[in-house]
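Per reviewer request, we include the raw input and output of the structure prediction for the construct analysed in the revised manuscript.
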Amino acid sequence: MLILGIESSCDETAIAVSRDGREILSNCVLSQIDMHTIYGGVVPEIASRKHIEVIAALAEQALSEANITRKDLDAIAVTYAPGLIGALLVGVNFAKAAALALNIPLIPVHHIRGHIAANYIAFPELEPPFVCLSISGGNTLILDVRDYTDTRVMGSTRDDAAGECFDKIARVLGMPYPGGKALDDRSMGGNPNAHPLPRTKVSGYDMSFSGLKTATLNIIHNAQQREEPLDVPGLCASFVSAVRDMLVPRTMEALNAAGYGKLAVAGGVAANSHIRNSFEQECAKCGAALYLPPLSLCGDNGAMIACQGYYEYLAGNIAGQELNAVASLSPEKGSYEPK
């Protein structure tokens, strides 16, 4: 089954073609980083307009690289939630028009389920059930993946997402957008104990990052106001260490409680070298299987949407022309329900 996957939830226009969920025939991504760098973050209106400009040509490129034509497609999968509403609408409306014109099924895909599916592409042997930590600029979730379309939230951030904190700290430090990689690079060789940053503890497997973000920003601002030198590598290493100390232990506790012995990590922050290394060490200690997607599949991409679309199709999650974009939606409610 050939599926065209469309992802436009934020600042990347991404379109891919998959066969039967696991085989990727093409994976085209057009990044808008250069356009948003001058603002230090994504400007929703600019992102939406850029999606409109490039989405049709990018779809043709994806078909060409897959060496197929429009008539070869069996279905179209599209991210419909969550994300920037204007950006989502561009992808959803393009997918609706294409599905109608080609008279093929339209498959709505939840963005977080898509990130989970990136691991199915990288690891063909991976099958549910397993625990997945999804960490990105918009979400931080510990998930019980019971089946391909049955996902339950075990824990989540109560305020800021981990990725949002990375980007904010990097921006204040004058690092280029997106800040996650730049901050990771600057932390190399830094002393992780240079600054005593807080590790917030809340009930269950939930997390909180706003206090850590505020404490880190205060250190930066105090140094600037006093015109004192700032140990940037040390601060970056201390910040990453604090994020890791809140993410890794809770995730490992959730993994132990679920009893699956399989842990996947997904999302943009899954590219952080310190977090990846920590999970490798912890899973080695307890004998759990660890699935870390390659860096190319950590960020937003169409391949993960095409892959998850296959399993949504098998589960009967098909939409009609009434499909609309949804800015915020729990992955537990990711299966589309027409209103």
